[in-house]
Structures are given as structure tokens and as C-alpha cells.
């Protein structure tokens, strides 16, 4: 169920579930007596669609084939409502042994001691991360602890509609254009094709973040904001200029594009010529349109982009089978056979050897292009930022709110910037 | 429901000749026990699913409970959550305003629509039953997610509503994606689901004695006069009942706003209902203590509004008892 008619009642039943489960949780802390029969059942929870479920089940079946004593209690669901469920399970002290998580929530869970620090397994070699890009591991580290195993890499990608641009004889955008050049290009493209040239990404934290890094700032410095109100204002003004120049769609269309679903991205719905996404979403975007898509880096200095973990697998700190869970993660991340099964479904494989294998063996052109583009960009990546602090998801939604106020013309860039800055400060301080 | 069926019947046949004075208290006691046994499923539900969690949430509302942390790290914060709500959370007041707008506009319109259609359907004509069923249909679907999804797609910029308006040369707005109209579309959805109060109105209309209308006609009253002087007063207890129910319903609006805004209350907070804000605080920001405090303020507020409605009822609700 994604929505309840009586949220308070659901909230309450969640609480009672928590209460009933409390003794269990406390009992669970009593000791880690291993079961004598050697049988282990690990609960495994992820979000995704049917396709991912099939791949994941195949991969886990392979583990069971090699370790017959280990079986899995698999649960998966759509992204919507996933984190509600995970929070409820956690509140009941009954979090899954292994669960999928993303950078929105990793710090929320890690700072509240839900996740196991995987560094210990990393050191002992039981969890091999030697083939992982270093920046990717940085992006899984919260307060010095490896809170989640980055499972899949991506980086910012600007996806454009090649078919429409070529038909109107507009030059294709290239990596390395400045933001101003991109907006000017979009204005020209809009005039020639009749479709708005670029989605307005002023509500998009990842675009804002890249832009900030290119000016020497960060979205976060540890548990502080890494930018000033003036920075936000400059960002909002940049895009107000683009809207005024008719390089972007109108506010209500931008609002549609601000949803995170792949199928609602404007480059796919044909309401803009470019969308600001994660590079690994390319194959999925391509499935949703007949037009040929292509991907480049965001404007500006592309070396300021970073390898972002598209998602992680974390182990519950209260799990009774931590060692087994770590071994499963090691298997999923590093086994070449599993690598072939999972492909780039969760992002480009973290293990670069496996990534190369997948790139060589895939016959999906958009997957191939994505891997090539990310590999090309990765050569120049500077240091990666740390994973966003707790409160990040609120910062994201506050940015959307403020940017949309400016887009709908209900606030000036200065007013919207002030509102966002105040709200963002409050969100990460709480 | 369970209460009425489980209540020990006073007219239950007594068992054999033992029904003497002496046997009476014992049997009484046994009946009482049996009653409680029959009640127990419901009682158990009330206690475990309603009462205990409610008290628990009352307790949590004075803490900084955050869902994810261990219970040991939960701290008592006194009235902090309540203070924050009234003084430091601008979205709280915004949500209050949105909810009030929604409830105060949607409820009267819904009741008016329900009464209007009920009056029309009260006449006897061929297919009356069919029409009653058809008009009731939307509310069978209730607060369903599917219905909200359909509604949103109908009111999109390229949705069915705008195509319809296009036939008349009217260029529609992007209703659901425009902060000026998003709440309006939700109100319209609520009004459209007028079936439940309509059925109750229909039942009420059937109870109005035909003689009153006949007498009024003899006196030369027209249809408007008959409606104002007979139908409305005779129906006032039913109107009152519907008003109470629908007001409470209106305040609790959640599903449609959640679906329309993908759980964000957008565009630009225009559909941020109180319940949605509560949900976001509890489940997206993990401030469950704060969310619990919001729930209690909400409960008290709805209680207060209902009490006010009851108060005003004295002045306009007429009970025509003891006429026969």
C-alpha cells in the first residue's frame, strides 16, 4: 500500500508493531548464539521493478547453490513506500539482515546506528573492495564508518534527444560547454525545433551541487551547508534568465520533470530536449522513447563531478548473521558470474574489473555508451564529496519547493534563495 | 457492528425452571461473562490496535522519538514539539490553512450536491434505481488511490478535461501542476464523491410525510416554497448527521493529496494537507515525536470543530417527535 486513508491510524499501528516487537529486539541483543544446525536464513530487502527482482533472485540463488546452508527470505517492492516499510521494520527492531539503501537515507540510518560498520570486514579482506574506485567508497562512508557497500556507480549525466536535434540540424551539445553556453544553445535549439531546449534543473540538488563544486563550494561541509545564500540566489537567477529566454519549458511542465521517475523525465515525454539525470539511467530512459538519446556530462568543468553510489547494500547492526551477510555482499560485488547476471541494473558495477566485463559483453548500445561516457569522465574526477548528512532528503525537497516558487513567479530568486537557505539550515541542524 | 451483535439480549430465553430468585444473580453474572467473551475480539482490537497505540503516541508526542534509533536514546522533551509546531514550523500553519480551505469549501459543496441530486432522484420515474446506483458509484470507490490517479490524469494539461474545454475554444490550465488550481481539483474530486451523503439524504426524503406537501399545495405553495418550508426543516436532522460526518471526513483528506503531489504536498505546498505534513514529518524526516504531537493537536482540533457543529445544531435542527 502506498497511501493510507488514515495515516494516523497507520502510524499508530506501526507503533504498536514496534511495541510488540520491542521485547524481541531486546531479546535479540542478548547474544549471538549461532544456530547449531548451521542453517542460516538471511532476510534481504530491496526496491525495484520486476526485472531487478528476477536478476537479484538469480544472483542469490547462485549463492545458495554454492553455500547450501544459506537461504534467503527475499522481499522487494517499488521505490514508493520502500523507505516507510524499512523504517517500520527498523522501529520494530526487525530490520532485514541486508537491505538496499541510497544516499538520501544512508546517513539517516548510519548516524542512528542502524547500519553495521563494514570497515572491519574490509580490513580483514572478507569484503574485498580493492577493485572499487576510491571516490565511490568515500561516498559510502559516514562518520568514518563504511555504512553501506556502494553497489553501482553513476555520475551526473545530461541526456539529450539526438533524433530531434539532428532533424532540426541543431549542433549536438558537448561536454565542456559552460552553463551560459548551454543555456544559449538551449535557446537556439528551442527556436529551431519548437521544443524547449533544456529542462530547468534549478530544483535539482545534483545539478546545483555540480555547479557549486565548479565554483569551489560544496553542498555540505560535514554537517554544515557548504554554500551561502548568495550562491543559491545566483543559481536561481541563472535559471530565471534561461526561462525568460524561453530556453526551458513553462513552470508547470518543469514541475512534471521535477518528479524523479524515469518515465516522467521531459526528454522522454518529449517536452524538452535535455534532462538532468544520473548517467546510469540512460538505458532505462531509452526504453521509454523511440527517439535516439545520448548522454554527456553536465555543463562546466566535468572533473568536478564525482562517482556517486547509485545505491548501497547495508547490513543491519542487530543482525544475527553479520559474517554471512558480509560474505554475501562480497559475493554479489565481486563474483564475475553474478556480475554478468546483474549487469548495470543497479548502476555500473562497483568492481571495475566486472564493469569492464559487462561493457565488453553487453549488446545494449545505450548501456555501452553509458559505461564509455562514465569511464571517460572518471579519468578526470577529482576528490569525491562525502555522503550527504542526515536531513539531506529534507534539503532536497526544500530546494524543489523554493525553486518552484521562483519558477511559478511567486517569489524572486532572492526571496526563494532566502527561504531555501533558512529551511536547509534548519533541516540539517535538527 | 460487533457491539450490537455481541450485546447479551435481555429477552434471551432462560434455561429451564432454575429461573428462580436465588438463581438470578448467578445467571446474571454468567450472562455478563458470556457478553464479555463475545465482546472480546472487539475489545482486544480496541485495546491493542486503538487505545494502547493512542496512549503510546500521546507519550511519544513529548519525546524526540525518531523511528530508527534505539528506544534507549529517546529523550523526554516536554512540550517542545508543541512549541515548535506553533512557533517555529511555518509549514504547520500553511498546512492548517490548506486543510481548512479544503474542508470548508469541499464539505458544503459536497452536501449541496448530495442534497440536490437526492431531491431529483427522489421522484419516481423509470430507471430511478439505476440512476441512484450510478450516482452512488463514485463513493463506492471511496478514497481509493486508483481514483486519484485517474483524476490527476484527467486534469493534466493534456488530460481529458482540457480536451473537452478545447471543443469550446477554451484553453485550459495545467490544473494539477499549477499551485493556483491544484487544491481546487482536489476539492472537486471530494465533491464528486457525494454518493454516501446522497443515499442518506434519499432515505431522509422518503420519511417526509406526503400530507405535508399536499397540504402546502392546497395552500398554494410552489416547489421552492415547499422545499424551503417543508423539505429542509424536515430533513434537518439528516443534514446535521451528514454535516458532522463529512466535516470530519474533510479534515482527514489525505489520499488524493498524496497521490496528486507524489507525497510532497506540491506544487509549492499548495496541496500540503495537515495529514500529509504529519506524514512527511514522521516518515520522511523521522520526527515521529513531532508527528505524534501533530496528531494529537489534530484530534483535539477536529473534536473542537465537531463540538461547534453540535452547538449550532440546536438552532437549526428540528426533531419532529411525538406527533403521532
UniProtKB/TrEMBL annotation, chain A:
Signal peptide: 1-27
Keywords carried by this UniProt record: Signal
Matching Pfam families: SBP_bac_1
Superkingdom, natural source: Bacteria
This protein's name: Sugar ABC transporter substrate-binding protein
Protein's organism: Actinoplanes couchii
TrEMBL record, chain B:
Keyword Transferase attached: no
Top-rank lineage group of the source organism: Bacteria
Region Disordered, residue ranges: 1-26
Segments forming domain ABC transmembrane type-1: 96-309
Transmembrane segments: 34-62, 100-121, 133-154, 181-205, 226-245, 288-310
Pfam families the record matches: BPD_transp_1
Topology with respect to the bilayer: Multi-pass membrane protein
Protein name in the entry: Sugar ABC transporter permease
Protein location: Cell membrane
Composition-biased stretches (Low complexity): 1-20
SUPFAM superfamilies: MalF N-terminal region-like, MetI-like
Protein family membership: Belongs to the binding-protein-dependent transport system permease family.
InterPro entries, per database record: ABC_transporter_permease, MetI-like, MetI-like_sf
Keyword line: Cell membrane, Membrane, Transmembrane, Transmembrane helix, Transport
Amino acid at each position: 500500500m502506498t497511501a493510507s486513508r488514515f495515516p494516523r491510524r497507520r502510524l499508530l499501528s506501526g507503533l504498536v508493531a514496534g511495541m510488540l516487537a520491542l521485547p524481541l529486539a531486546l531479546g535479540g541483543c542478548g547474544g549471538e548464539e549461532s544456530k547449531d544446525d548451521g542453517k542460516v536464513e538471511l532476510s534481504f530487502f530491496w526496491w525495484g521493478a520486476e526485472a531487478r527482482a528476477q536478476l537479484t533472485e538469480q544472483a542469490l540463488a547462485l549463492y545458495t547453490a554454492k553455500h547450501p546452508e544459506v537461504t534467503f527470505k527475499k522481499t522487494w517492492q517499488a521505490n514508493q513506500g520502500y523507505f516507510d516499510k524499512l523504517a517500520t521494520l527498523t522501529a520494530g527492531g526487525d530490520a532485514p539482515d541486508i537491505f538496499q539503501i541510497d544516499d538520501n537515507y544512508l546517513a539517516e540510518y548510519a548516524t542512528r546506528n542502524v547500519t553495521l560498520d563494514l570497515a572491519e570486514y574490509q580490513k580483514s579482506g572478507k569484503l574485498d573492495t580493492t577493485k572499487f574506485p576510491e571516490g565511490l567508497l568515500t561516498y559510502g562512508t559516514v562518520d568514518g564508518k563504511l555504512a553501506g557497500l556502494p553497489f553501482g556507480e553513476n555520475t551526473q549525466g545530461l541526456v539529450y534527444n539526438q533524433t530531434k536535434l539532428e532533424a532540426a540540424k541543431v549542433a549536438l551539445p558537448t561536454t565542456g560547454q559552460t552553463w551560459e553556453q548551454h543555456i544559449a544553445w538551449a535557446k537556439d535549439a528551442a527556436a529551431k525545433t519548437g521544443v524547449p531546449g533544456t529542462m530547468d534543473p534549478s530544483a535539482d540538488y545534483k545539478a546545483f551541487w555540480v555547479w557549486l563544486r565548479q565554483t569551489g563550494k560544496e553542498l555540505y561541509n560535514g554537517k554544515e551547508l557548504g554554500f551561502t545564500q548568495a550562491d543559491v540566489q545566483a543559481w536561481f537567477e541563472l535559471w530565471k534568465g534561461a526561462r525568460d529566454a524561453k530556453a526551458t519549458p513553462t513552470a508547470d511542465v518543469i514541475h512534471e520533470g521535477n518528479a524523479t521517475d524515469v518515465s516522467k523525465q521531459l526528454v522522454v515525454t518529449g517536452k524538452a530536449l535535455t534532462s538532468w539525470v544520473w548517467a546510469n539511467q540512460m538505458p532505462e530512459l531509452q526504453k521509454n522513447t523511440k527517439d535516439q538519446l545520448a548522454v554527456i556530462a553536465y555543463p562546466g568543468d566535468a572533473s568536478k563531478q564525482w562517482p556517486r553510489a547509485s545505491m548501497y547494500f547495508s547490513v543491519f547492526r542487530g543482525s544475527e548473521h553479520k559474517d554471512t551477510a558480509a560474505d554475501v555482499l562480497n559475493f554479489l560485488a565481486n563474483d564475475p558470474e553474478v556480475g554478468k547476471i546483474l549487469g548495470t541494473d543497479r548502476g555500473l558495477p562497483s568492481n571495475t574489473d566486472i564493469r569492464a566485463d559487462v561493457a565488453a559483453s553487453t549488446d545494449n548500445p545505450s548501456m555501452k555508451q553509458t559505461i564509455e561516457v562514465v569511464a571517460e569522465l572518471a579519468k578526470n574526477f577529482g576528490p569525491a564529496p562525502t555522503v550527504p548528512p542526515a536531513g539531506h532528503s529534507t534539503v532536497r525537497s526544500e530546494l524543489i519547493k523554493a525553486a518552484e516558487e521562483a519558477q511559478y513567479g511567486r517569489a524572486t530568486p532572492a526571496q526563494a534563495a532566502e527561504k531555501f537557505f533558512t529551511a536547509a539550515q534548519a533541516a540539517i541542524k535538527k | 457492528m460487533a457491539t450490537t451483535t455481541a450485546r447479551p439480549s435481555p429477552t434471551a430465553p432462560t434455561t429451564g425452571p432454575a429461573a428462580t430468585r436465588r438463581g438470578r444473580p448467578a445467571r446474571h453474572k454468567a450472562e455478563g461473562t458470556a457478553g464479555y467473551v463475545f465482546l472480546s475480539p472487539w475489545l482486544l482490537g480496541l485495546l491493542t490496535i486503538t487505545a494502547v497505540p493512542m496512549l503510546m503516541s500521546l507519550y511519544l508526542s513529548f519525546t524526540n522519538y525518531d523511528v530508527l534509533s534505539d528506544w534507549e536514546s529517546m529523550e523526554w522533551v516536554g512540550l517542545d514539539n508543541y512549541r515548535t509546531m506553533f512557533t517555529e514550523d511555518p509549514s504547520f500553519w500553511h498546512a492548517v490553512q490548506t486543510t481548512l480551505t479544503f474542508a470548508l469549501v469541499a464539505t458544503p459543496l459536497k452536501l449541496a450536491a448530495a442534497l440536490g441530486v437526492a431531491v431529483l432522484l427522489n421522484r419516481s420515474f423509470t430507471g430511478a434505481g439505476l440512476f441512484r446506483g450510478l450516482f452512488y458509484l463514485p463513493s463506492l470507490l471511496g478514497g481509493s488511490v486508483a481514483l486519484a490517479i485517474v483524476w490527476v490524469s484527467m486534469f493534466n494539461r493534456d488530460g481529458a478535461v482540457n480536451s473537452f474545454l478545447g471543443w469550446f475554444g477554451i484553453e485550459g490550465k495545467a490544473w494539477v501542476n499549477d499551485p493556483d488550481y491544484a487544491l481546487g481539483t482536489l476539492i472537486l474530486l471530494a465533491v464528486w464523491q457525494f454518493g454516501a451523503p446522497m443515499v442518506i439524504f434519499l432515505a431522509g426524503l422518503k420519511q417526509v410525510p406526503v400530507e405535508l406537501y399536499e397540504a402546502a399545495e392546497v395552500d398554494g405553495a410552489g416547489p421552492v416554497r415547499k422545499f424551503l418550508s417543508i423539505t429542509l426543516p424536515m430533513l434537518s436532522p439528516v443534514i446535521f448527521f451528514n454535516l458532522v460526518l463529512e466535516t470530519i471526513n474533510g479534515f482527514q483528506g489525505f489520499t488524493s493529496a498524496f497521490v496528486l503531489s507524489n507525497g510532497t504536498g506540491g506544487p509549492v505546498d499548495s496541496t500540503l494537507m495537515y495529514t500529509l505534513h504529519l506524514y512527511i514529518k514522521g516518515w520522511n524526516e523521522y520526527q515521529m515525536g513531532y508527528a505524534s504531537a501533530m496528531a494529537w493537536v489534530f484530534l483535539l482540533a477536529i473534536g473542537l470543530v465537531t463540538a461547534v457543529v453540535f452547538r449550532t445544531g440546536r438552532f437549526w435542527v428540528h426533531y419532529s417527535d411525538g406527533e403521532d
